């Protein structure tokens, strides 16, 4: 088969579905290299629109199919010739397509041609600064993965077109926000097929330089509403303190949460303002984690949680604190695996009270995070609560300590707490590991 003429091999593979065609071509490196190219169409290296058009035409004359294409236009953004290029490009059986066309001064956002969304071969679409032209319902039949970059201003159609994608399984919405939008950005993610959702939104350095007001402004501009009953993985990493609204997750097995709490803490001088943002993280964790079996809380998200918890410390003795906290914090009955990343003493103080709300927890990872913006004396200044016997770690089987290194005294405090909280008899059956 290695001696098969390339035109005959191309004819054979062209009759197969894309997945099988790619798999078979991978049997031989020369086949794959000759038949499936990964190309970039970028106007930064061309000085005129005419030269850029010639480079696109040269790409289209290639005999290869295109596995992965990146179209990036910052200078030459006229919609008509880009549409024509994309229509011809799709005949190359493109599987992964990335489109980033800066907004045209006169024409506005670049409209994604309907042919892109209705392609029989395209599986992954990555877009930035674009507008979606909605075709009739039921025509987005192939897209299984979408990635949206909202670093720059985005058209409203980007916020809610996901419901038109009946086989969508992976969705990423990310961006380093360079300019806060003029209107509220409400993402409505409604999908019966979505399995994995990742939201990663952070403020660009040029926004942070504007001062503390930017955090409070951003918190009122971003909202994410998720209705995806088949969702399995939810990953949220953000510093815009977006409001989260979620439906019922029947199949959720992993939730990962991270927040820009410490970055906001550096900027905000008033405790009250930081508390407002921290409570948003508190509500997000409450909503997102009730039905998951695995929960991973980054140090920023846990910092916001522990900061909110400090309000309860004025309630008096430990029993009163625990009772008051239980009123507002639910029991996570489904969580069996928990990883907490902790970088300050408030987090360690809060940790036992959180564990009391995970009655079915079996695996506990505790990671000591070394942050430059947390003073060394404040990273692990902890006196474990005295009255925790019987109210946490009732079912834990595995404990893993991460990042303690030579801090054996601190690790010893953790193990002493585990011994008391799990009771002496159960502690002997718990597996303890270090990393």
Automatic annotation (TrEMBL):
Gene3D superfamilies, sorted: 1.20.1280.50
Signal sequence coordinates: none
Record-linked Pfam families: F-box
Start and end residues of each F-box domain: 1-55
Source superkingdom: Eukaryota
InterPro entries: F-box-like_dom_sf, F-box_dom, FBL13/AtMIF1-like
Full protein name: F-box/FBD/LRR-repeat protein At5g22660-like
């Amino acid at each position: 088969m290695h001696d098969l003429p390339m035109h005959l091999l191309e004819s054979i593979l062209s009759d197969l579905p894309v997945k099988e065609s790619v798999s078979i071509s991978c049997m031989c490196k020369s086949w794959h290299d000759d038949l499936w190219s990964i190309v970039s169409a970028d106007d930064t290296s061309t000085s005129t629109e005419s030269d850029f058009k010639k480079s696109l035409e040269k790409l289209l004359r290639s005999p290869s199919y295109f596995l992965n294409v990146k179209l990036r236009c910052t200078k030459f953004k006229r919609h008509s010739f880009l549409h024509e290029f994309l229509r011809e490009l799709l005949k190359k059986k493109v599987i992964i397509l990335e489109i980033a066309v800066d907004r045209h001064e006169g024409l506005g956002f670049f409209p994604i041609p309907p042919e892109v969304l209705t392609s029989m071969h395209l599986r992954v679409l990555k877009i930035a600064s674009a507008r979606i032209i909605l075709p009739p319902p039921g025509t987005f039949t192939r897209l299984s993965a979408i990635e949206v970059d909202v670093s720059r201003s985005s058209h409203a159609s980007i916020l809610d077109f996901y419901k038109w994608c009946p086989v969508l399984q992976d969705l990423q919405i990310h961006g380093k926000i360079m300019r806060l939008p003029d209107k509220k950005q409400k993402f409505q993610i409604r999908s019966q097929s979505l399995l994995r959702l990742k939201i990663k939104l952070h403020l660009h350095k040029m926004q942070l330089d504007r001062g503390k007001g930017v955090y409070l402004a951003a918190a009122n501009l971003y909202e994410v509403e998720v209705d995806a009953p088949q969702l399995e993985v939810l990953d949220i990493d953000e510093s815009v303190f977006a409001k989260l609204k979620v439906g019922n997750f029947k199949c959720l097995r992993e939730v990962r949460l991270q927040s820009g709490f410490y970055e906001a803490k550096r900027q905000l001088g008033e405790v009250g303002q930081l508390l407002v943002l921290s409570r948003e993280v508190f509500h997000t964790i409450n909503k997102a984690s009730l039905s998951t079996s695995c929960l991973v809380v980054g140090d920023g998200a846990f910092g916001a949680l522990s900061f909110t918890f400090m309000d309860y410390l004025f309630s008096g003795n430990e029993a009163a604190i625990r009772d008051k906290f239980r009123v507002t914090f639910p029991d996570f009955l489904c969580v069996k695996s928990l990883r907490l990343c902790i970088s300050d003493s408030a987090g360690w103080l809060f940790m036992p009270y959180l564990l009391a709300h995970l009655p079915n927890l079996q695996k506990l990872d505790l990671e000591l995070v070394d942050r430059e913006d947390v003073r060394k004396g404040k990273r692990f200044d902890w006196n474990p609560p005295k009255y925790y016997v019987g109210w946490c770690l009732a079912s834990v089987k595995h404990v893993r300590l991460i990042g303690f290194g030579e801090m054996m005294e601190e690790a010893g405090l953790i193990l002493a707490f585990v011994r008391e909280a799990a009771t002496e008899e159960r502690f002997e059956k718990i597996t303890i590991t270090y990393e």
